[in-house]
Design goal:
about 270 residues, 15 strands, Thrombin, subunit H, six-stranded antiparallel beta barrel, six-stranded antiparallel barrel, mainly beta, about 5% helix
Amino acid sequence: MVKLKSARRRTASVVAVAVAGAVCATLVTAGSADAIVKGQDSAQRYSFMASIPETVNGTGQHGVCGASLIDPQWVVTAGHCVDPKLVTPDGTIRVGSEFRSSGGTVRHISKTVTNPGYRLSGEKPYNQNDIALIKLDRPVAERPIRMAARPGAPGTPTRLLGFGTVLDTYDLSKAAYAERLQELDTRRGADAECGPGYAGWSRLCTISPKPDAMACIGDSGGPQIRRGFDGQWELIGTTSGPGDSRATCAGGPGLYSNVSAFSGWIRRTVHVNR
């Protein structure tokens, strides 16, 4: 990603890139091409995977963010995915489908709660407290994912899920979105493996062992998962932004909001809004 010379330019980039905090642009069916970038078609059903159709404000372009079902009536996503200054959700969420625009269970949005510390800033650290909760109008039958008690030490194997662009670009007009859910095996990175000031206690540095592969436009808010002690998937992060400055999505680390760090806030919010 090219280094930006002003907070305004940095914020514009964050809006434009899923791994950089983007939502998406005009939707283009990607066929069977690789995605996330350089991910692969999902090898199993992820009942907790959710997608949020929305419009990017000021452009009229239709897009999508990812989310994770953590309760029969609640999903967790990125704060910027519901930021009214940036996007307008179309009011529905699709849960439990391998496909972006069909299958699963569709519910309407009943309530949105953004973390009170959320900040979309042009200065480091970027995407502060970039996490939000959405309440569905009715519970779904799909099985929620368990939130991890801790994200795991650097080196822990993880997996990313999303419907993001198959092309490695920050140019919204060139983005091409996967219809089929994509996955990419990654690992937790040490804070030092991301750019200075990017990762920290609430932001996870994420590394892809596969060259030139990482989440991108359209993957924002989607899950980063790992295997728990019982072999079941656990949620550790939500796609937030880039892990350093570079000209493309892939070829560098990603940045994920640490769900474990916000688990107390998540549980309290769900409890008081039953």
